Structures are given as C-alpha cells and as structure tokens.
C-alpha cells in the first residue's frame, strides 16, 4: 500500500469523525486542554558518512511531551516536542536530536479505551559530537549540526481512568 492511499484514508477518517454531529452528540469527552510529559528510551543504530566501516550503536533516552486542545470529541490540535540523546563511546561522543511541531489527532472513545491516529508537522535539529583519538596533548573530534523537517504519522491508545484523567 503506498503512502498516498494511507494519507487519503486518514483524511477521510478525519473528516468523518470531526464533522459527524450525530457521533459527536453520543460521545462526550473532556473538552479542555490535555497533555503531559514522559521519559522515553530505545536503541539506536546509525552509519554516518564520516566513519569508514564503523557504526554508532547505543541506548537512546530523553524526555518529550504534548499539549493539545479538544475541539470535538474526535479531534485535537496542539503541539508536541521531544529531545533524545545517545552517548555511544567511552570518550563521551554523542548523537542528539530535538524536534517539535503542530499535532493533529483524531480518535474515538469506546467505553474507557480511545484508539487514535496522529500526525505531527514541524522541525528540529540534530547535533553530533564524535570524539576520535584522545591523547594527552591532542583531541581529534568532529562536530556536526543539521536542521530537519519532521512529518510523523503514528497511532496509539489511551485508557480513560476518569473523565479528566487518562493514560496513554
């Protein structure tokens, strides 16, 4: 399935859920601001151009969060951002990425479970410091910074404990 068909599917789903007043009347949810922060962790593998026959691997960790406003029971608009860092060598070389953007989210509440689909459009930056050889008198290092455009599609699920408190 190509990306165009997936985008059309989510666009049709979005308009059906947001502009269907009969469904909106049946599915009442908290209409204020929602959001929160969370810690995240993962594993990272990267093959940079400047390292010949080497690969950067390590544990990635950071913090991120979102804040959004419920326009309807099925549609939220807000922003989200994340910062993650990977220290990948004994001499403290690192790879760091930070980004943020506009969040558009749609979903439907089934009893206490709310599956959702989101897209984020924004920007950010990558910073990398690679420390090569270290001796008493000399340190060889490469420092890179890049800007980036972020377009992210993702799905998730929330579990509603009360009308105003739920877990992602």
What does this entry look like structurally?
This protein has a single domain, classed as Porin (Beta Barrel). Helices cover 13% and strands 62% of the residues. Strands 1-2-3-4-5-6-7 form a seven-stranded antiparallel β-sheet. Strand 2 and strand 3 form a beta hairpin.
Task: Please describe the structure with a list of short key phrases separated by commas or semicolons.
single chain; 168 residues; mainly beta; Porin; seven-stranded antiparallel beta sheet; 13% helix; elongated
* Distance from first to last alpha carbon: 28 Å
Strand proportion, as a percent range, falls in: over 45%
- Chain-averaged pLDDT: 80
Order of strands in the sheet with most strands: 1-2-3-4-5-6-7
The computed structural class is mainly beta
Characterize the overall form.
Answer: elongated
Instruction: Please tell me how large the radius of gyration is.
Output: 21 Å
CATH topology annotation:
Porin
Question: What string, H for helix and E for strand, traces the elements in order?
Answer: HHEEEEEEE
Domain unit count: 1
**What is the CATH C level class, in words?**
Mainly Beta
The CATH architecture term is: Beta Barrel
The total of beta strands comes to: 7
Taking the sheet with the most strands, its summary is: 7 strands, antiparallel
What is the count of helical runs? 2
| Low-confidence runs | 21-26
Helix % is 10-25%
In short:
The chain has one domain: Porin, CATH 2.40.160. The chain is built from two helices and seven strands. It has helices at 3-18, 21-26; strands at 33-46, 56-72, 75-87, 94-107, 113-134, 139-160, 166-167.
């Amino acid at each position: 399935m190509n990306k165009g068909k997936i985008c059309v599917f989510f666009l049709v789903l979005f308009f059906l859920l947001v502009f269907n007043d009969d469904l909106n009347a049946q599915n009442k949810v908290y209409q204020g601001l929602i959001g929160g922060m969370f810690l995240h962790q993962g594993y990272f593998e990267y093959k940079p151009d400047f390292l010949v026959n080497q690969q950067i691997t390590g544990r990635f960790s950071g913090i991120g969060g979102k804040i959004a406003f419920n326009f309807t029971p099925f549609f939220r608009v807000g922003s989200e951002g994340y910062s993650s860092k990977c220290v990948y060598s004994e001499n403290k070389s690192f790879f760091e990425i930070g980004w943020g953007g506009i969040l558009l989210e749609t979903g439907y509440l089934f009893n206490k479970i709310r599956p959702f689909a989101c897209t984020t459009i924004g920007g950010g930056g990558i910073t990398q410091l690679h420390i090569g050889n270290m001796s008493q008198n000399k340190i060889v290092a490469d420092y890179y910074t890049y800007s980036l455009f972020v377009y992210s599609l993702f799905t998730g699920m929330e579990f509603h404990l009360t009308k105003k408190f739920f877990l992602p």
